[in-house]
Predict the 3D structure of the following.
Amino acid sequence: MPEPTVVHWHGLRIPAATDGTEVVQRPIQPGETFTYTFTPPDAGTFWYHPHANETEQLEKGLYGALIVRGTDEPILDGEQILVLDDLKVDPKGRLARFGTLMERHNGREGNVRLVNGKAEPELAIVAGQIERWRIINASSARTVRLAIGGQPFQILGTGGGLLESPVEATEILLAAADRVDLVVGPFAEGELLALEALPYNRGTGERQVERFATLKVGPAKPSTAVIPQCLRTIEPLVTGVVTPNCTIKLSGRMSLRRGFDFLINDEMHHHAEPVKMGELQVWDIVNVAPIDHPFHFLTSTRHC
Ligand SMILES: [Cu+2]
């Protein structure tokens, strides 16, 4: 690459030095190499993406899924890994110019929707079978309110791995970088379903129904899927009455230089006091900005 980069391992609980952000690592310069070494401690659906000039590097394809399998996973008939993305192309079909003011405000949303790098592909599933779909929203900014032809599915896991038990739904909201594991099927032979984003307004205007892919249901085969009602036990951090002891306010203000600034507790790039080991904070998160504000924790551990 002709420019520096760092690679962030989204969602993995790994040592800070290998977490791949500018905060913990000097950017890797053109021609340089850097070896990330870590052992992922949790099973789940993760992904990696650059954390330097990320909108452009991401849109040019520097990302991928990272699947960590546990020892005791539910057994389904098949698995598909679907990475959703949206490209912004100009009328000539080239990547549109990067870094417009609108993009810097609201994030870059594209006009071509991709699944695993292909525009609106045809996916296949065997009739009667039940699959695990690991879905990653690799869009820079788009929130995807995902539906599979209005058919019910089960949510098996999210960014934090398996849920305690599957949850039935007909749609799921995936903010940029979100992941979800679904139980999909069984469908009848010959069915044609749209994997699509339903209308959603994240504060930048309403988006209409948009297709990501078509799902074609092929000839039937019997299912041997086993989905236990208890997938795992998640110990609560607190029991009894929970009182927040920290407020995180997400807001924004107009700015002459940048158009709009996003703030945390009334500051740009807010630095909170470090959380001590063993300390329990219960956060009350309030978003008073006129736009959705997805975020995630860089939960890397510092080795001393
Ligand atoms: Cu990330």
Q: What stands out?
A: Residues 7-218 form a domain with the Immunoglobulin-like fold (CATH 2.60.40.420).
